[in-house]
Design a protein that fits this description.
The chain has 445 residues and is an alpha+beta fold. The protein folds into three domains: 101 residues, no CATH class; 57 residues, no CATH class; 186 residues, no CATH class. The protein is built from seven helices and 38 strands. The strands form 17 sheets. It has a three-stranded mixed beta sheet, with no helix packed on it. The chain has a three-stranded antiparallel beta sheet with strand order 18-19-20, with no helix packed on it. The chain is elongated and about 170 Å long.
Length: 445
């Protein structure tokens, strides 16, 4: 068969064209324009790094010339990862790229690589954020406060404390405490705000103490009262109320303004009686009922205020001569006889100690003398004997001696009176001239 030359030429051209097409499209890419590399683009490389690892799904690799941030806020360079440890309340440690801490806040990085915080929620609500900038490599945020890490670890500062690069559980003698507010003194938990540890003794702060060196006291052996430390007071049997030290009533504290310790054993509310323009407290001691205040009833004659000063009358009551005193008590009451006074003295312990137990603690003269306010002024039974002094004819010894009339007469123009002293515990009786002006207490008939 004869084939024309023109047909052979056509077939050969078709085959050549097909070969050229298959050759140019073998890598799946379009041929470059004008046979050159395209401007501004990189040709993908078949050796690019893959993200992820089948054998270790938690691992990751990063492309070169890129920087990643970890959840803790630290910047991570090429082919590196960031992780930190945290202590929870259980005491175990964990390491991860996303730090979790019991009741703590996580940090986020800023452009400078320093850290500010965002808060996590806890069972008691969200914690406060830290508003400042800090270095997350050695510090962390907890509830609005920045703390130093403990040898690179974050921890819960309300349940752990860091010492020597180790985070220890805050436990004192088996009891947990909050190291932000408390500490352990050998085996006793104490408050950092108003206590300190000296050796094995927890001392309390005596607020308003004028002497800084006397600011701390031992509550087992001392009492702080209105900024003053009483070394001779006994916290087991005594207590502070207002500015003064009182005996407890059978181990119980009470309010001396409205209550007294009846017969040394029972906390009792004061009774009252109105006389003139004043209401007087009353109390029971033994089998008797007494006024618990010195009488302050003005008479037309026979009585005065100490130094003619009304302020003394308001504090100590009036001073009366014996004749006026015999008529000044209200109906149903009378000036005590020497026998009445002796019954009272016996009920509170006898002559040798009665002065201590009857004298009012409120007398400022003695509170200002170291020890006297505690040793000689107990007012144990609520009698509140204020030391009003006396007058004959001039006035003398207010706050030094207390004198009270009895109805019992002595020899001639004398009568018996009772006296207590600022610096002694005992009480005594003696005769005095009837024109002398003394304090008055009334006892119920």
């Amino acid at each position: 068969m004869k084939v024309s030359f023109s047909k052979i030429t056509l077939v050969a051209g078709i085959l050549l064209a097909m070969a050229l097409i298959f050759s140019c499209s073998g890598d799946g890419s379009e041929p470059p324009i004008n046979g050159g590399v395209s401007s501004g683009e990189e040709t993908p490389s078949s050796s690019s790094v893959e993200t992820g690892n089948k054998d270790n799904p938690s691992s990751s690799s990063m492309e070169a010339n890129k920087t990643l941030s970890s959840s803790s806020g630290a910047e991570v360079g090429d082919n590196s990862s960031s992780s930190s440890s945290s202590f929870g309340e259980s005491g175990g440690t964990s390491s991860s790229s996303n730090v979790e801490m019991d009741k703590s806040s996580s940090s986020g990085s800023n452009e400078n690589g320093s850290s500010s915080s965002s808060s996590l929620s806890s069972s008691s609500g969200p914690l406060k954020e830290c508003t400042g900038i800090f270095n997350p490599d050695n510090k962390f945020c907890y509830d609005g406060v920045v703390y130093d890490k403990c040898d690179g670890m974050e921890y819960n500062p309300t349940t752990y404390y860091c010492q020597g690069g180790v985070a220890y559980p805050a436990v004192c003698n088996g009891a947990a405490y909050n190291p932000l507010k408390q500490d352990c003194c050998v085996s006793t938990i104490y408050n950092l705000s108003n206590q300190k540890c000296e050796g094995s003794i927890v001392k309390n702060q005596c607020v308003l103490s004028p002497d800084p060196s006397m600011m701390w006291y031992n509550p087992v052996t001392q009492i702080c009262c209105s900024g003053k430390i009483y070394n001779s007071a006994n916290p087991t049997t005594q207590f502070c109320n207002g500015d003064n030290i009182f005996d407890k009533c059978d181990g119980n504290e009470y309010n001396p303004a409205t209550q007294y310790c009846r017969n040394g054993t029972t906390v009792t509310t004061y009774g009252s009686i109105s006389y003139g323009d004043k209401t007087y407290k009353t109390l029971d001691i033994g089998e008797q009922t007494w006024m618990a205040e010195n009488l302050n009833y003005a008479t037309s004659s026979g009585s005065v205020c100490y130094d003619n000063s009304e302020s003394y009358c308001n504090t100590y009551g009036r001073l009366y001569n014996w004749a006026t005193a015999m008529e000044v008590c209200p109906n149903g009451w009378h000036i005590p006889s020497l026998s009445d006074w002796n019954m009272l003295i016996t009920a509170v312990g006898g002559l040798s100690i009665a002065g201590k137990y009857l004298k009012a603690i409120e007398d400022r003269y003695f509170i200002s003398i170291s020890g006297y306010g505690v040793n000689y002024y107990m007012n144990t039974y609520g009698f509140t004997a204020l030391l009003g002094g006396g007058c004959y004819p001039t006035c003398y010894d207010v706050s030094s001696y207390g004198n009270w009339w009895s109805e019992t007469e002595g020899v001639g123009e004398t009568a018996y009176g009772i006296r207590v002293y600022y610096d002694y515990e005992y009480i005594n009786s003696s005769t005095y001239d009837k024109p002398t002006l003394f304090s008055v207490r009334c006892v119920r008939n």
